[in-house]
Amino acid sequence: MRQGAARPGPRQRFIRIGVLLVLLGFGARLIYIQAVQADALAAQGVTTRMVHYDEPARRGDILAADGTILATDVPRYSVEANQLEIDLFVRKDSHGNVAYAGAAGAAELLAPVIGWDETELRGALTGDSAWVPLIKDAEPPLWRRISELGVRGIFGTLYYERSYPAGAVAGNILGYPFKGEGDDDHPGHYTGLELTENDLLTGKPGSRDVEVGGGGQPIPGGEYSGTPARSGCDVVLTLDSDLQWAAQNAIDDQVAEMGAESGSVVALDVKTGEILALADSGTVDPAEARERGLGGSAAVEDIFEPGSTGKVVTMAMVLETGEATPTSTYSVPWTATFGGQVFKDHDEHATSNWTLNGILAQSSNIGTMMAAQNVPDQTRYDYLTKFGFGKVTGVELPAENPGIVHVPGTQWWDGRTRNTVLFGQGVGVNALQAAGVYQIVGNGGVAMPPHLVRSWQCPDGRTDTTTVGKGNRVISRDTANQLVGMLESVVDDGTGGTAKITGYRVAGKTGTSEMIGPDGNADFFVSSFIGLAPANDPRIAVAVIVNDAQTSSWGATVAAPVFKKVASFALQRLDVPPSTDEPVKIPTTW
To answer: Which among 123, 184, 422, 514 is placed 20 to 30 Å from 438, CA to CA?
Structure first.
């Protein structure tokens, strides 16, 4: 009997059936996954590879009226390493051999690019930390070089840093971002224009979700979604950057030459109220100010007694009320008693026959009080406030000081104060307020609100321009014109001769006031000159304030030369034609 092949037994058949069923199960599962669950699983895979990034918004620029960028945002990257990812880094050469690997390989590639010692960098990249800072403020070209290396585990986070391309120009009013508590890397708060215009300057952050590979690098052609960040609006100022620079240099030089404590310069467009320059001595780059913790603009934050520059308010008052005319006559002694109080002029002189115009030209306190003796206290107060004393100007800067004007009938308005306010003492103003008085006079008696912001422009196409309207009439045009003529006599025939500008008629007033100094003694002098040019058709008002000069206290010596420099520069910068007609001479004596 021929022996045939052995037939499988029951046990073998059972195993074969079991294997077949398992294979059928796997096949069915694979078909189910590919046909039914493919989209869902693919989406799940993408989800696990998606990384969310917050995208910072660029802050708007601040520009001068001539287009000079004064403040802007520049991109920076903080560069970090994930040591766990670095450990998995491998780079092969063209032959498929490992050329760089792990922390040692990453350090060899990165060290010459970022300027680290290779051994030190290898130590920083070794460990089990998911976040190790390497560079705090890498500029974009450096980050591009780093990212092009393709080192797994090296990441860069975009942020913006405030920069001031013009350096110290207008640093006193731009303000600066400073770090919030607990925030070591990014600014959180602002001062100056950065604060007052913050709503416009601030952009809207965005976000993005990016599909990344195992090393955390974006996958080319991978999934991407998000909302782009929107930049803030650009703010255009009224400042002329060159004039601001000139004013800062002029006041810095004079403060140094006179051994003074500090000084300020304000230049206004008489017709519009635009601030063409607002300079303070010692102004620095806002980035440096941030580190030194410096404050804002002394021209709006500090107050002083205007002294004789304030006499123009009294002159306006007596002209408007009919108490006097520019040619009214007075016999003026150098000392006199009013209301039981003894007053003196700045220099001893024989009794002089001066007109009202001569009183202003010679800056006589006694003559000023004589001219205003019949004016009631309330009217004196009203004219001070009409000219803006005791009220903020509304300029776009924080911390503006409204000044001090005492109210008649209170303990602060006594028998002496009612007279001292007539020659600019017993009241407190800031430099911008003081300049505003002369803007009113130069503009035919109409006050225009001083302002620093001319317009703004937003990325979405939205634009706007500051509107100041027709202004507010304070005194009549006739009175204003008479005052300009009287102030021109101060320069031509009185105390303000050092303010003369070749080719232009100038109207202005010197001032000196004695104040209580930091040591508590009345030995702190404020010297000033405020003027208009050209006097025949005023275009600019310039105020110069110098605090505690050591070589002299007179406004003619300390402040008027700065006025001459700044006003001369401004007239040329604004293309104001020289004066061609001669002034009408108003008698100063009788």
So the answer is: 514
